[in-house]
Amino acid sequence: MITCSAPGKVYLFGEHAVVYGEPAVCCAVDIRTRVSVAPADSVTISSSLGTTGIDFETHPYVSAVVERFREIISLEGVSIRIVSEIPVGSGLGSSAAVTIATIKALDTLLGTGLELDDIARMGHEVEQRIQGAASQTDTYVCTMGGVVMIPQRKGLDLIDCGIVIGNTNIFSSTKELVANVAELNESFPEVIGPVLSSIGMMSTVGEDLVNSKDYVSVGKLMNINQGLLDAIGVGCAELSSFTYAARNNGAYGAKITGAGGGGCMVAIAPREHVDDVAAAIAAAGGEAVVTEATDIGVREESR
Ligand SMILES: Nc1ncnc2c1ncn2[C@@H]1O[C@H](COP(=O)(O)OP(=O)(O)O)[C@@H](O)[C@H]1O
Ligand SMILES: C[C@@](O)(CCOP(=O)(O)O)CC(=O)O
Ligand SMILES: [Mg+2]
């Protein structure tokens, strides 16, 4: 049996706008999905969502990965078992992590010799197939780890402060949220276009601030980015309440991460304040997790 893992991620800046070609800055975090594979006569996929064969209702991403491998190598059966610390449908990139960890595990089992760039590319193709429109961000950062600027694929300095995630526990489908933004953009292109460009500008301005570890300024930009995400309709009352709770309790800045509409927000904070920030999010009704950035991307854990 071979086990591979891949990390979740938070966006410092740029989700949604990145789907329209704007830059984004995304950071892998130390919360992982583990996928174990073993030879078998037929395909079995088991996770917290259930046990299935190839099944595009329950396991669309993993099913698409298996089909993709069948295009390059003969693969009759395989047993795939998923254990994840990343909440599903929460903006932390659970879909990318399960996709990338499965690709790496199958690559290792079948000896297909994929390089990291190949894994990221295949993962992006799978996300595009299942999600409709999908940027390369989640699959790339979860393959490589660290802090990455997209579309340049440029590595930035690892975030050296505390990261607190606040989960609303409201399931949000990235596919739906991306489609909602597209609809708003079609209705009001003159209004939404400039908002998306302004979101992109966060990354352009933020890049040097991340590299110089100026987290006070990074936090201010995250707060502006949050306002613009609200403007494109991907916020909700709980996400707003948790971002204010974080900001009022020592965070440098706080915003939605990922698709929004539910799911998670992210705050960056001095390490000495992370517990206060987490307590404030919990008091506002969220599930708070204190984490750190990680430069460990997809990797084999055991065989
Ligand atoms: N642990 C898991 N096991 C199986 N499938 C998973 C797992 N985590 C995520 N997924 C897949 O990813 C989908 C959620 O992806 P998405 O809507 O993009 O949200 P997220 O923000 O978490 O990436 C789930 O509906 C499921 O198909
Ligand atoms: C909204 C979007 O920018 C990020 C979605 O992230 P997540 O699936 O919510 O973790 C979509 C994308 O980049 O493909
Ligand atoms: Mg996703």
UniProtKB/TrEMBL annotation:
Identify the residues that the record assigns to the GHMP kinase N-terminal domain, covering every copy.
61-146
Instruction: Give the organism the record lists.
Output: Methanococcoides cohabitans
Protein known as: Mevalonate kinase
Instruction: Tell me the pathway.
Output: Isoprenoid biosynthesis; isopentenyl diphosphate biosynthesis via mevalonate pathway; isopentenyl diphosphate from (R)-mevalonate: step 1/3
Which residues does the UniProt record annotate as the domain GHMP kinase C-terminal? 210-285
Q: What the protein does?
A: Catalyzes the phosphorylation of (R)-mevalonate (MVA) to (R)-mevalonate 5-phosphate (MVAP). Functions in the mevalonate (MVA) pathway leading to isopentenyl diphosphate (IPP), a key precursor for the biosynthesis of isoprenoid compounds such as archaeal membrane lipids.
Q: Which UniProt keywords apply?
A: ATP-binding, Cytoplasm, Isoprene biosynthesis, Kinase, Lipid biosynthesis, Lipid metabolism, Magnesium, Nucleotide-binding, Transferase
* Catalytic residues, chain numbering: D138 (proton acceptor)
Superkingdom, taxonomy of origin: Archaea
